[in-house]
Structure formats: structure tokens, C-alpha cells
């Protein structure tokens, strides 16, 4: 759990380490600085990461990548992930592909072979891939713009993909039987065997991987488009919609109403993505159309705790690092991918007091983990300095998706390329 | 003049015919290109080329004027090399695809692409040397040698075969390989082979040693400024005379191979031409000829040597093919001719568009204006980007190209972007973002309207309203608000409360929307039993003329339960106002309309009048009492 601070990092205050690198002001953000109900809005300073680029390998794949997801690791696994899946969009012939970044036997002389991703297998997918989640080690659930939800199985012995289960037009507009009556399914989340999907039709479906019929459907759950969904607890889900609302739904209750509604004040800026802190379930991060990162504490209030001016266009995905939640990753239509690191600001505090002795450094990590106040919720800008790194210096087209597992990052872009960084914290 | 019409004509050519022509091509020799309009856009592997070069293109536009003078040139050469490496990478992928293709038709299709890409790289490389880097006398020849070595790879297999044989000097192709090395100026490799011959054949040791010595001593132009051209020419003269001496002595008379090599070293055209088969192309011949007779050739002299080399090499047997014409134009420094020929010969706009843009950044094309459009760079970029927009998926790349066409880019973008099919909201958002970033208000409006109409058709009133709010489309917002109100009148309850309750400032977009929001607020206040606030709001909706007249009766009916509450809610003044509203409503109607109204309506009016009168009575008493106390 200890935050992987770079060697020597604990000895110098974060401000110095910031100065040491090329400091770059956050690209001039033309957006109005709105006040969120008197709550703090932090300005962010972005550092371009020259070192991070060295470890990245890219592959052009001749299709616009809409989603990229690591295959989950078995519980006891020690090695980093090596298989990921991608989905394409806006192609006449969209595909689900499984890639390997493993060494595949061709280890270089220094044992550090970093080959580009190799295609293991792929399968046709009707419609754009709108969202994708691994159900388990073998199965991946895919949301389609046609309204279909499909589970594909990856057969690892002969490297093929096949359709395992399909819900035709799980999302639909007025007439389900009409040939074009499907409504895009925009988000999917799984907690094996349960699968929850949301769509442009404002519908929420609760499915089970082994059942042909939906366990439960909430029609008209939302009057606007639902953009994303995630589990809050095993029985509760969070959804975000196109009028800036975050809603909690308790699936145990038969009422077809959200149990709580949170919203951004005023401008109704659409929210596109949502993720929950892996350990502290009350902390939720969302990303909006204006590129703003909002942090919510769902125990209190109906408005975000902090709003952070971030990207210059739609934030498509936000992910807390699953095992290291002081780190957060966001990607955007403006072609950038940011790494938000709050671990340094907390870690430096003890070293300020003790002038960074070796023993105190280890000690300080322990104290952080015990502290109850998360750096994400604290809103004293003088105390917390977040270190934000832009991982893509020469951005062009949209980064549609990213996934992070262990030390590995994968992301896919509209420039038809997938990128893998296997030494994120190196 | 660029002639787009020729594409149109060629695009009608019979595909079977085209297939025949393709299969008869000899790879990496001169080719005939079959042209179809933007056909290459649809080649899967080439999408890498488009996407990766897009990044380079953007980088080049952004790097504008960052450096001056020499470092700018270094930067441009680097950009050019990046483009070439993308072509090469694509070529390798295509080659892989060709090798693994089982279907012969597919295989030949891939092979065709490989040879086209290879020709593109060949031309680009030459343009890089002559125009971008603008190599001067001396280094120019070294660059041209690199160019030939990189692209003449027919002989590579032969070289490999000989070198890997057990006893190279006994191999029947041994001398061919030595010749290849000499022709390409690869002296070290040639000498290495000669030493093998010397050790295997004691009789020729002496000859080999002398030839080896000549090769070793051959002066080469230096890349740096370590020697002047005159120095170089002087050295060259000496060396040349020495070679001459050995040849006249008859030193190599006993070995025809070595004698011919010596003749080549002397730049003997006939001797070099005898090795035609080993050179395969006239431009190889040109470079070899320059190497051994004019090593300090100046850029402007190239054209004479090029022309005569081609004439000598082809010897009137065959006429020059498009590739030859293009290269010749490059050697003649006719940049526009190069671009024109490439436009005609190649089946894509990618090459000419990017090359022209690069040359334009080198400030080489400025004087040239077309009599149509703005200038050649822009014309070609527009053509290329329009091609991208015609593709189902590559349209996103086209946007940035249009952005860098100052004159017509915007108009093209406006026309193209409206024609992109919007099948999901996500795609619509991406297109919208493109328009909003460029302040294309008209297109923003039209996209939002399309999406709002779609949502409306799907009975998604909430979404439809969101879209029209985003477009600031008051008329459409009014239309949707009316739908909401109609639904309310029919069902007696509101749908999509989560949206209507959260309209915020966007409520002010249209009068009807304001009314909808306020009316819903009235219902909420009523539901929360905040009657006096509700009553005030209700009255305000009518007196301030926020409510449409058609809705007044509904509002007055809504006032009924408030009038009938135990507690008095409307003040006397408010009651008078209500009465006035009712009378305005009924008085406005003609007798005929009254006649048509059904009994329910008349009854409503009667009930209202009664309730108002009773309320008035109660309030007069109450207000009188309050004042009295």
C-alpha cells in the first residue's frame, strides 16, 4: 500500500522535485471559474512527463480505439498484467481484440524486452463499442451502440473469441421490435455474475451473466442520457447523466427512483465518467464535458467537495488506481492523459519536520495509511499539493479510454493507436 | 496545372484490366500506376500511414518558426525523415501482409501496394536530398549514394548468396558482387571480397593489391568542412591519373574483371553501362557515373547528367515511365513538375499533400499560385482532407488538415462536418466539440437540432430539451416545452421531473420553457403545502404574461383548490386580479366560440366565479378583522 515514491524523493520536498522538472502551467483554461457553493476549486499545475514516454510502446491498429481494459489478474498473482482487450468505434467493421504484451519467448539480451502489443485474436462486433468490462479472467462484457449487450469468451488454449451470451436491444427507444429501435448502451459495470448497463434511453438494466432475461429493468430511470455507471456497494450503483447529476440507486428497493441525487450547481454540465475510491467508498470522482474533475463525498451535501479545472474538453474516463488510490488517472477528448498524484503532498509533511531521515520516511507512509482524512477530500490548497503529470506531451486526437492495473497503463486513441506503459511508477 | 479530371477518367477504368496491369509489374523497377479516385483511403494497412503522418503533420505546423537558419533546416530534415520512416514502417507491414496472404489476388494487391509505397519513399528521399536538405556539391554525392544503396535492393539476394557460400571467390557470381559494391561505391566491402580472391588465387595477388590500393586511396567528399572543393578536386585528379596509368600499363590486362573495375573507377561510361543488369535503373547509373567522373557535381549540373544518363541507359529501347519522369523532374529541380507528375501517377493525395506542405515550410513554393483556389499547398491539402472526410472513420484526421488551410479550410470543414452521420450521442459530442472549438455556431445549432429531433422522435423529451438548450434554440425549446405541457394536460402529472426541476438559468432560453419551469415550481410548492407562495407564483404566471393564453384556464382551475382551502390564501387584491384574468379570458372569446365550448368549460367558469366570490367574501371579512384588531 505504501506509495511508490521515486528513489530519493522522500529526501527532498515535493516543491523541489517540481522545480527540478520542466514546469508547465496548465494550458490556459478559458472556462469560466465557477464557484461551487463556496467550496474550493483548486488550480492545477501540470508537469510534462519526459521520462514517462520512454517506457511507452505504441501500436497503430487501423481502427479507432474506444475502450481498452486489462484482463484482471488471478487473486494470488504476483506478475504484472500482460493481456488486455480493446474495442473499436466508428468503423464499418468494429472489432473486439485481445492483445498480449507478454514477452512471448522473445526476451532480449537484458531480459527487459519491451515488444509492442501482439494481437492474439479478434472478433467482429456489431455497432460501436461503447463500454467494456471484464467479468472474470475469460469473459468480457461489451456494450454496443446498437443497444446490444454481449459477453464474449476468450478461449486461451486456442486463442479465439466467441459469443457467450447476448441481450439483444437491452436498450431501446419506443419500439423494441423495429429494426432500428435500439438505443446505444453507454455504460456497463460488472460484479460477477451481475452486470448493470445504462443507456441513451435512460434505462437501467440489471442482468445476470447466466440468465437470458434481465433480472430487473428500470425504465425511464433518467430523463436524459445516462453516460456511465459504477458499483458503490454490492447492492448500490452510481450513475451520471447528461445534465450533470450523480445518482445513487439502491437495487434492493423496488421503487424505481434514485435513493439520492447529487448535482453540479447551475450550468448542468454533462458528466461522462464516474469512479469510486477503492477503499473509501464515500469518495467518488466524476469527469465532465468541460474537462472538470469533481470529487464528491457522498456522505454529505449534494454538491461536489472540490472541482478541479483539468482538461480542455470532455473527460472520457476517470480511474482511481485500484491498489494505490492516492493516484488517479483521467483522459480526455483534448488528447491528454493526466496522472494525479496526491501521495507526494502527504508524504512530504513528515519529512518537512524531520528533514527526511531514512527511517522517518518509512514511518511516514504508515501514518498516512492510518489517517482517516483522504487527500482527495481535503480542500486546503496550501496544505495539499497535487502533483499532476501529463503523460502525453504531443497530444492530437482524443484519448478515449485508459485502464490501470498494478504498474501498467494502457490507453487507446482516435488516432488509431494503443499505448502500453509497463513501468508507470519507475 | 494540376488536373483533377484525369482522376475522374481513370477511375472508370476496368478493374480486370487494372488487375492484369498490376500483375505484370516488376517490383522496384519502373512502374505504371493505376489510378482510382482516393482508392487508397480504403486500404486497411494504409490507415497507419494516415494516422501516424497526421501526428507529424500537426507537429510540423506547430513547430512553425521556432528555430531559425540552420537548426530550422535540421528540424525540417528530421520531419522529412519521420515521414519516410512512417512510409517504411507501412511498407514493412504491407510486405508482411503480402507474405502471409494465401489468396493470390490479395497477394498481388499487397505487392502492388508495397511497390507503390517503395516508389513513394524513393521519390520522397530524393526530394529530401535535393530540396529540403538542399545538399551542396560534395555532400550531395554522398547523399545520392546513400539513396541508391537504400533503394536498389534487387542485388541484395545475390550478395547474400555469394557471401554465405563456402568459397565466395569460386562462386560464379563472385565478380558480379564485387561489381555491385564498386558501382554503389561500397569500397570497403569490395576490398574485403578482393582480399578473398587474392588469398584464393595466388597468381592475381599483385593485381589485387594494386586494385585494392586504388580503391583505398580513392578520395571521397567529406561531410564536414574539413576540406575545400578544390582540395578534393586536386586529390581526385591525382588519383584519376594513377588509375589511368595502371590501365595504360596493362597491369590488369590478364584479368578482364579487374580491368573492367579499373575502367569503372576511371568513369568509363561504356564500362559502367556494361553492368546495366547490376544497376537495374538509370538513376543508379547516374549516381555511379557521377561518383567516378564528377564527384563534386553541383546541384544545378545534375539535370544534364541525369538527362544523358537516362538516354544512355534506356538507349531508345523503352520510353520513360511515370516514375522516371518524376525523378527526372526532381533532378531538374522542377518541384512543381514533380508534384504534378506525382498527383497524376499516384493513387492517393497523401503523398503530394504532405510533400507539398513540407516543401512549403521550406519556403520553396511561395511564388507559385494557381489560377484556381488559393495556392498549391492548400489545394492539395484540401483534396486530401476531403478524401479523408469521405471515409467512414478517418474524417477526424481531416479536421486538422482543414484547420491549416487558411483560405478555404474553414468553408470546406463547415460543408463536410454537417454531413457526418451521427449515430450515437458520443459521436455527436465529438463532432460538436470540433465545431465549438472553431466557433462554428451555425453547425453547432444544426447538430444539436438533429440530435434534438432524434430524441423527440424517440420520445425522449428530456434529452431533446437538453440538446435544444445546448444549441440555445429557443424555438425548439418552446416546441418541446409545449409537448411537456400537453403531456401534463393529458396525464395530469409531469414526466422527467429530474430535468425540469434542475433547469436553472437555462430556463430563460424561451418563454415557454420559463413557464414550464415555473409551473412545475408551483406544483412543487403546492405539494410542499407552501400555499401562499404557490398562489403568488400562480398569479404572477398570468399577470406577467408568462403563461400562454391557452393555458390560463388550466391555471385558473389549479387555483380552485387554493380558493377552497380552509385558510384564506389569496388576498383581496389577488382575488381581484384572478377575477380580471378570468374575465379577460372569457371576454376575449367571441359568441361563436362560446357556443362551441362544451358544457364542461362553462361549468368550470361558473365554478371559478363562485369560488372567487366566496374567497372574496372570506378575505374581506378576514382583512377587515385583522385591520380592526
From TrEMBL, chain A:
Record-linked InterPro entries: WD40/YVTN_repeat-like_dom_sf, WD40_repeat_CS, WD40_repeat_dom_sf, WD40_rpt
Keyword Zinc-finger recorded: no
UniProt xrefs under Gene3D superfamilies: YVTN repeat-like/Quinoprotein amine dehydrogenase
Main location: nucleus
GO cellular component: nuclear pore outer ring
Keywords tagged on the record: Nucleus, Repeat, WD repeat
UniProt KW Lipid metabolism keyword: no
Placement of WD repeats on the sequence: 264-306, 308-350
PANTHER family in alphabetical order: NUCLEOPORIN NUP43 (PTHR22652:SF0)
Protein's name in the database: Nucleoporin 43
From TrEMBL, chain B:
GO biological process terms, semicolon-separated: mRNA export from nucleus; positive regulation of DNA-templated transcription; protein import into nucleus
Keyword Protein transport belongs to the record: yes
GO molecular function: structural constituent of nuclear pore
Key words, A-Z: Membrane, mRNA transport, Nuclear pore complex, Nucleus, Protein transport, Translocation, Transport
Gene Ontology CC terms: nuclear membrane; nuclear pore outer ring
Compartment(s) of residence: Nucleus, Nuclear pore complex
Assembly and binders: Component of the nuclear pore complex (NPC).
Family named by the database record: Belongs to the nucleoporin Nup85 family.
Functional description taken from the UniProt entry: Functions as a component of the nuclear pore complex (NPC).
Protein name: Nuclear pore complex protein Nup85
Organism of derivation: Dromaius novaehollandiae
Amino acid at each position: 500500500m505504501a506509495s511508490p515514491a521515486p528513489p530519493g524523493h522522500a529526501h527532498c520536498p515535493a516543491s523541489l522535485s517540481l522545480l527540478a522538472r520542466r514546469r508547465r502551467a496548465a494550458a490556459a483554461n478559458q472556462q469560466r471559474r465557477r464557484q461551487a457553493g463556496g467550496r474550493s476549486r483548486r488550480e492545477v499545475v501540470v508537469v510534462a512527463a519526459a521520462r514517462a514516454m520512454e517506457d511507452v510502446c505504441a501500436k497503430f491498429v487501423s481502427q479507432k480505439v474506444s475502450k481498452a481494459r486489462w484482463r484482471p489478474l488471478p487473486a494470488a498473482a504476483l506478475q504484472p498484467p500482460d493481456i488486455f482487450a480493446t474495442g473499436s468505434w466508428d468503423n464499418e467493421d468494429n472489432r473486439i481484440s485481445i492483445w498480449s504484451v507478454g514477452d512471448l519467448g522473445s526476451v532480449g539480451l537484458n531480459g527487459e524486452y519491451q515488444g509492442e502489443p501482439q494481437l492474439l485474436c479478434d472478433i467482429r462486433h456489431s455497432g460501436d463499442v461503447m463500454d467494456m468490462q471484464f467479468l472474470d479472467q475469460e469473459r468480457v462484457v461489451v456494450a454496443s451502440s446498437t443497444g446490444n449487450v454481449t459477453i464474449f469468451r476468450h478461449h486461451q488454449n486456442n486463442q479465439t473469441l466467441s459469443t457467450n451470451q447476448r441481450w439483444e436491444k437491452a436498450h431501446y427507444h419506443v419500439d423494441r421490435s423495429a429494426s432500428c429501435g435500439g438505443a446505444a448502451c453507454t455504460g456497463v459495470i460488472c460484479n460477477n455474475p451481475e452486470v448493470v448497463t445504462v443507456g441513451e434511453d435512460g434505462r437501467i438494466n440489471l442482468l445476470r451473466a447466466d440468465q437470458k432475461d434481465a433480472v430487473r429493468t428500470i425504465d425511464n430511470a433518467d430523463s436524459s442520457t445516462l453516460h456511465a455507471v459504477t458499483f458503490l456497494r454490492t447492492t448500490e450503483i452510481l450513475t451520471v447523466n447528461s445534465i450533470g447529476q450523480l445518482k445513487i440507486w439502491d437495487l434492493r428497493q423496488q421503487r424505481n427512483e434514485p435513493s439520492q441525487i447529487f448535482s453540479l450547481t447551475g450550468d448542468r454540465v454533462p458528466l461522462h465518467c464516474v469512479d469510486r475510491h477503492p477503499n473509501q467508498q464515500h469518495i467518488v470522482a466524476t469527469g465532465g464535458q468541460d474537462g472538470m474533475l469533481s470529487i464528491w463525498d457522498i456522505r454529505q451535501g449534494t454538491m461536489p467537495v472540490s472541482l478541479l479545472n483539468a482538461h480542455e474538453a470532455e473527460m472520457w474516463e476517470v480511474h482511481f488506481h485500484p491498489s494505490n488510490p492516492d493516484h488517479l488517472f483521467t483522459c480526455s477528448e483534448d488528447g491528454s492523459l493526466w496522472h494525479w498524484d496526491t501521495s507526494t503532498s502527504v508524504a512530504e509533511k513528515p519529512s518537512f519536520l524531520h528533514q527526511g531521515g531514512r527511517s522517518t520516511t518509512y514511518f511516514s507512509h504508515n501514518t498516512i495509511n492510518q489517517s482517516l482524512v483522504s487527500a482527495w477530500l481535503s480542500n486546503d490548497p496550501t496544505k495539499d499539493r497535487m502533483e499532476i503529470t501529463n503523460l502525453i506531451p504531443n497530444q492530437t486526437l482524443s484519448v478515449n479510454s485508459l485502464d490501470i492495473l498494478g504498474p501498467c497503463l494502457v490507453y487507446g486513441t482516435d488516432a488509431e493507436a494503443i499505448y502500453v506503459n509497463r513501468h508507470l511508477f519507475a | 496545372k494540376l488536373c483533377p479530371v484525369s482522376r475522374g477518367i481513370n477511375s472508370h477504368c476496368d478493374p480486370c484490366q487494372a488487375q492484369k496491369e498490376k500483375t505484370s509489374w516488376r517490383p522496384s523497377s519502373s512502374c505504371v500506376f493505376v489510378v482510382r479516385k482516393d482508392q487508397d483511403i480504403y486500404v486497411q494497412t494504409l490507415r497507419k500511414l494516415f494516422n501516424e503522418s497526421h501526428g507529424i503533420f500537426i507537429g510540423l505546423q506547430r513547430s512553425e518558426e521556432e528555430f531559425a537558419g540552420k537548426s530550422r533546416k535540421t528540424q525540417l530534415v528530421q520531419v522529412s525523415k519521420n515521414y519516410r520512416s512512417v512510409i517504411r514502417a507501412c511498407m514493412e507491414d504491407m510486405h508482411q501482409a503480402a507474405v502471409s496472404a494465401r489468396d493470390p489476388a490479395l497477394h498481388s494487391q499487397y505487392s502492388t501496394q508495397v511497390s507503390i509505397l517503395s516508389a513513394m519513399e524513393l521519390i520522397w528521399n530524393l526530394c529530401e536530398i535535393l530540396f529540403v536538405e538542399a545538399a551542396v556539391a560534395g555532400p550531395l554525392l554522398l547523399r545520392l549514394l546513400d539513396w541508391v544503396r537504400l533503394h536498389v535492393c534487387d542485388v541484395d539476394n545475390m550478395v547474400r548468396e555469394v557471401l554465405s557460400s563456402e568459397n565466395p571467390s569460386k562462386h560464379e557470381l563472385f565478380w558480379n558482387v564485387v561489381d555491385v559494391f564498386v558501382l554503389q561505391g561500397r569500397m570497403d566491402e569490395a576490398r574485403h571480397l578482393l582480399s578473398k580472391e587474392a588469398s584464393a588465387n595466388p597468381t592475381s595477388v599483385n593485381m589485387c593489391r594494386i586494385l585494392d590500393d586504388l580503391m583505398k586511396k580513392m578520395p571521397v567528399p567529406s561531410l564536414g568542412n574539413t576540406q575545400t572543393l578544390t582540395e578534393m578536386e586536386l586529390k581526385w585528379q591525382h588519383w584519376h591519373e594513377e588509375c589511368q596509368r595502371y590501365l595504360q600499363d596493362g597491369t590488369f590486362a590478364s584479368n578482364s574483371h579487374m580491368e573492367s573495375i579499373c575502367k569503372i573507377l576511371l568513369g568509363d561510361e561504356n564500362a559502367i553501362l556494361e553492368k546495366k543488369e547490376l544497376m537495374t535503373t538509370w538513376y543508379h547509373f547516374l549516381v555511379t557515373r557521377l561518383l567516378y567522373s564528377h564527384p563534386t557535381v553541383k546541384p544545378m549540373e545534375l539535370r544534364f547528367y541525369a538527362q544523358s544518363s537516362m538516354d544512355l541507359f534506356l538507349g531508345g529501347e523503352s520510353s520513360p515511365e511515370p516514375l522516371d519522369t518524376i525523378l527526372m523532374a526532381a533532378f531538374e529541380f522542377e518541384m512543381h513538375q514533380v508534384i504534378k507528375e506525382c498527383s497524376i501517377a499516384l493513387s492517393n493525395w497523401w503523398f503530394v499533400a504532405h510533400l507539398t506542405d513540407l516543401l512549403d515550410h521550406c519556403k520553396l513554393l511561395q511564388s507559385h499560385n494557381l489560377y484556381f483556389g488559393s495556392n498549391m499547398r492548400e489545394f492539395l491539402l484540401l483534396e486530401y482532407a476531403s478524401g479523408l472526410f469521405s471515409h467512414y472513420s478517418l474524417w477526424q484526421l481531416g479536421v486538422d488538415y482543414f484547420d491549416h488551410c487558411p483560405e478555404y479550410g474553414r468553408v470546406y470543414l463547415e460543408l463536410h462536418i454537417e454531413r457526418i452521420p451521427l449515430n450515437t450521442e458520443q459521436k455527436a459530442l465529438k463532432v460538436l466539440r470540433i465545431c465549438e472549438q472553431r466557433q462554428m455556431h451555425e453547425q453547432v445549432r444544426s447538430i444539436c437540432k438533429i440530435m434534438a429531433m432524434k430524441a423527440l422522435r424517440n420520445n425522449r423529451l428530456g434529452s431533446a430539451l437538453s440538446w435544444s438548450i445546448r444549441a440555445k434554440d429557443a424555438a425548439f425549446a418552446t416546441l418541446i416545452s409545449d409537448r411537456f405541457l400537453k403531456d401534463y394536460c393529458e396525464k395530469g402529472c409531469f414526466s422527467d421531473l429530474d430535468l425540469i426541476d434542475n433547469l436553472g438559468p437555462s430556463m430563460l432560453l424561451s418563454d415557454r420553457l420559463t413557464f414550464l419551469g415555473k409551473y412545475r415550481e408551483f406544483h412543487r410548492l403546492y405539494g410542499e403545502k407552501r400555499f401562499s407562495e404557490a398562489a403568488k407564483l400562480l398569479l404572477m404566471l398570468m399577470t406577467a404574461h408568462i403563461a400562454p393564453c391557452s393555458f390560463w384556464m388550466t391555471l385558473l382551475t389549479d387555483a380552485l383548490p387554493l380558493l377552497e382551502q380552509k385558510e384564506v390564501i389569496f388576498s383581496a387584491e389577488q382575488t381581484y386580479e384572478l377575477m380580471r384574468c378570468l374575465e379577460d379570458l372569457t371576454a376575449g372569446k367571441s359568441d361563436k366560440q362560446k357556443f362551441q365550448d362544451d358544457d364542461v368549460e362553462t361549468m368550470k367558469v361558473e365554478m371559478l366565479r363562485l369560488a372567487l366570490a366566496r374567497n372574496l367574501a372570506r378575505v374581506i371579512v378576514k382583512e377587515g378583522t385583522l385591520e380592526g384588531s
